[in-house]
Predict the structure.
Amino acid sequence: MLTVALIAGLSACSVTPRRAAPVEDRPISGVRPVAPSASAPTQAASAPTDAKPLPGAENAGKPGYYTVKSGDTLIRIALDNGQNWRDLVKWNGLDKPNVIEVGQVLRVVPPGVDPTAVATRPVTTGKVETRPLDGKPVAGAASAPAGASAPIAPATPAPAATAARDSDDEPAWGWPVGSPVSAGFDEQRNKGLDFNGKAGEPVLAAADGRVMYAGSGLRGYGNMVIIKHNNSYLTAYAHNQTLLVKEDQAVRKGQKIAEMGSSDADQVMLHFEVRKQGKPIDPSKLLPAR
């Protein structure tokens, strides 16, 4: 009888595990905002304790939708799905884009688009331009304030940029910086190429496109620019000390978009990613021979 009573007492003292407390992303600091029209979305907070159905729950598991996990941010979700975070706000009717909840389900493809019909053709090098880019900064460019329109750097006139074209054509790629590669692509450990260089070294757009993000709201990337080139491709440029473009600005291949720095890194470097439909791919397979 004593044993039974003891077991009953221990059972009564058991507790239900607590839910994780909401996680807030750190505030953006150290750089003048380059997109003052909206604050960068913050990290996902844990779902409230009252059992209220979360937005989009009926779409969980369906193609073209994403279920928010702990630690997610809207910027990260957009990057991993090859979309602009502002489009996610619009497609999902988010009144407060700074607040997303664990378990919430977000549409990550445009309305009316069949997510099962997304092109899956293999990545090929295609025809790329092999002439060297002039990576020298234009006079006065180094003093341009963050958020200002950047000067155009190509040595020869380029045709008007067809930014974020509604096609899957292979962009004409160029190197984003003149420094040598210091770390290659690794699908698990390094989702792009790293370049070591000097603070202030010009960072160039790798192809024509439109800026879909310019800021410092994604942890681990520092001051970053993301450019969308067409329906399939986007590129990311991280750890800059200065950003010279702003969101929704059209840019051309070889245009100076930032200056190399060490934001959110332990040394001066550029981390460069190419993503096809949100998936990181090896940039060295696309860039022309030096």
Notes: The longest strand covers residues 233-243.
